[in-house]
Amino acid sequence: MTLRTVAAIGSLLAVPAFAQADPAGATAELTLQVATEMLGERCRHVEVTNRTAFASVSLHRTFNDDFDTHPLVSGRWVPHYAGGAAWPEARYWGGDGSDFKRKTNWNGEQQIYVDPRYGGRETTPLGLDPFRVDHGILSIVARRTPLALKQVLFNNEYISGILTTQSRFSQKYGYFEIRAKVPVGTGVWPAFWMLADDGGWPPEVDIMEGRGQRPDNIVMTTHWRIPSTQKVESCGFDFRVMDAASAFHDYGALWQPDRITYYIDRQPVSEIKVPIGFGDPMYMIVNLAMGAKYFDGVGFVDGATPETVAFEIDRISAYQIDER
Questions:
Q1: The CATH number of the domain where 309 resides is what?
Q2: How far apart, in Å, are the Cα atoms of 215 and each of 9, 60, 244?
Q3: Are 295 and 189 within 8 A, CB to CB?
Q4: Within a domain: residue 248?
């Protein structure tokens, strides 16, 4: 098993469309509503009908990127998965085998994550940049691999981008949020998610994933492992956000000691009792994959897949829970 393997999702549900929010943004302080009802062993929807069944959680900001500059300039992000302690620095940037940390083969992904320093099979930079910043909006752009570079880039169908805060920022507990438009199309798989800082898998928190063949479909899922059997369990839900591809919305997860609550436009929509194995800080990942073997509603790229796909991101933020 490797990163981003998605097991069976606990339930599917189409809910009414969310109105486009206009929150104050990544303010220094934030208050969220969380359910107070006792949790069972599986995830469940949060029904916002009885306000007395909710409590307020106060938070303060610990991380924010409004993407006013290129994401690789700030030092907050790295454009590839991290390797082991013995992984030579040069292997991140080029040469045979350097694709190992630039995609997840298990998932059947058909892209390779590039950045201006990456050389593929060559050891000199190809100058490929999948990150574009325009008026405070970051676009992670996937496009078909130029024919002249196909062999150099390990015969991947698309070039795309990934950003992670591994080794730069991680946090135990708190609220993690992206404000973004979710692109669609055959083989299109955008995501904002978290992994444990110790490098293990799972745990995994998928705050937002898009099923490219199902416009307006957003997936929020928790993954964990049962120690006695080593079986990976998953539980989550699909939500319908009618204008997800054309309008910015906020997608977030609040990780507390007892529960993880998922939010759309800062309204709680689902929750789960924190599974076993969530003991380490987690780091954030945002990426645009192309092609999926196991994740329903994405499919493999084909002739109908857009030549260019853009995952537009307004900001990514993290908050820590205030001490009482």
A1: 2.60.120.200
A2: 18, 34, 8
A3: yes
A4: yes
How far is residue 218's CA from residue 220's CA, in Å, rounded to a whole number? 7
**Strands ordered across the beta sheet of 162-164:** 162-164, 282-290, 188-196, 204-210, 217-225, 232-240
pTM of the prediction? 0.93
In DSSP terms, which residues pair with 113 in a beta bridge? 160
> pLDDT tens digit string along 206-218?
999 999 999 999 9
Q: Give 243-258 pLDDT, tens digit per residue.
A: 999 999 999 999 999 9
Which active-site residues does the annotation give? 204, 209
**243 in a structural domain:** yes
* CA dist., res. 208 & res. 193, Å (int): 7
Cα–Cα nearest to 245, from 274, 267, 212, 202: 212
Q: How many domains does the chain have?
A: 1
Alpha-carbon gap, residue 320 to 57, rounded angstroms: 10
Domain, as residue range, for 259: 29-321
Rounded-to-integer distance, Cα 130 and Cα 135, Å = 17
